[in-house]
Amino acid sequence: MGVLRTEVIGWEVSQGNGSRLFSRQGVKKMFLSVSHSRENIENLAKAVLQDEYDSNEQLKFSYSKSIEKIRGIECDHDVKVQFHNSPIAREAIRQGVFSEAADLDDKITIQSESYQMHCLNLYNEAIKLIEKKSIQLLQLIELVTTDVVFVHSPRIGGGTGSHLPGVICISIGDDWTEVDVANTLVHEATHLNVFLCDMVNKVFTSPASELDKEEYRVLSAVRVGDMRPLDKAVHSAFVTVPLLYFEKLLGSCEMMKEFSVSLNDCVNGVVDKEFLFTQYGQQLVNQLREFNESRDFSLVEKALI
After folding, report:
1. Residue 242: CB partners within 8 Å, gap ≥ 6?
2. Which helix H or strand E contains 150, and what residues bound it?
3. Mapping DSSP to helix (H, G, I), strand (E, B) and coil, where does residue 177 land?
4. Strand pairing category for 218-219 and 227-228
5. Strand partners of residue 227
6. Contact between residue 202 and residue 280 where contact means Cβ atoms under 8 Å apart
7. Secondary structure element (H or E) that encloses residue 18, with its range
8. What angle do CA 192, 284, 29 make, to 5 degrees?
9. What are the pLDDT digits (tens) for 281-305?
């Protein structure tokens, strides 16, 4: 689950009037669109790197340089698997992603070489599974992710934060398989991509502190029955869509049964608060509404292009 959206990025990215949701052919882009993510990354790199930006450089190189400048920690252009005692893990935990794992000294020894190999094997098998089922989903994950960090925490699951772009943290359960890790990668990479959309184009008209007010809370799509701040609630709806799609590709329907009603409640609640979204954000909300009303997975397949 992604953590609180924060206003810490100090670079201004021009956004126009929301037209980046459309390609030159006028085809609407979705928050899962790989091509739209490329546009966002290019615009982020131009804003952050400024004179250092090189249009001839591979996009992922520009992205990693931008992220390194934002977070102040070394960043590779390839997805790097790291563990609990790495600098980026320490920074993520310090900033609230898996804050339950803050007692690093006691946890480092738990992540033995065999444990790290187990995590790495699960990750590699998860990547193979995603590639087998949807190369577009894998492209999105590898595009927006720079670091996958396995932490040791009493809380099982995944975590991201808008203040740490590119970073996915995972705390695996004892019985986890590659399917669990694959679901977590899909889930958290979608958070990262929506953070990127917001960073470049601005999704909300108000700061996160305003969206936290009681009157702007909405039922979560994932934390069933919980009223969440608007930004967190809409994120829960965004991530539910690719999770349901990936589950369908796996031939299962358990999450659809579990989250079908809560997704509907969440999307309807978000639509009621549409006035708190920018024109760009309203386009994303409309895409959520379209999927929610139809539950047509071909919309997801088209959007991923």
Report:
1. 32, 137, 186, 187, 190, 300
2. strand 147-150
3. coil
4. antiparallel
5. 219
6. yes
7. none
8. 85
9. 999 999 999 999 999 999 999 989 8
CB 4 within 8 A of CB 232: yes
User: Which amino acid is residue 238, in one-letter code?
Assistant: F
Can you tell me the distance from the alpha carbon of 207 to that of 210, in angstroms, rounded to the nearest whole number?
Answer: 5
pTM of the model: 0.89
Q: Which residues contact 9 (CB under 8 A, 6 or more apart)?
A: 70, 162, 163, 199
Nearest to 191 by CA among 224, 222, 152: 222
Q: CA quadruple 198, 203, 206, 211: dihedral positive or negative?
A: negative
CB contact set of 179 (below 8 Å; sequence gap of 6+): 126, 129, 250
CB 144, CB 189: distance < 8 Å: yes
- Residue at token pair 């052919």: 25
Phi, psi angles (nearest 5°) of residue 233? -65, -45
Domain ranges across the chain: 29-39+69-176, 202-305
How far apart CA 79 and CA 98 sit, in angstroms, is 20
Distance CA(103)–CA(148), nearest Å, equals 20
Question: Which tens digit of pLDDT belongs to each residue from 146-176?
Answer: 999 999 888 899 999 988 999 999 999 999 9
Long-range contacts of 300-303 (CB under 8 A, 24+ apart): 300/30, 300/32, 300/241, 300/242, 300/245, 301/136, 301/245, 303/29, 303/30, 303/31, 303/32, 303/33
Sign, CA dihedral 190-192-195-201, equals: negative
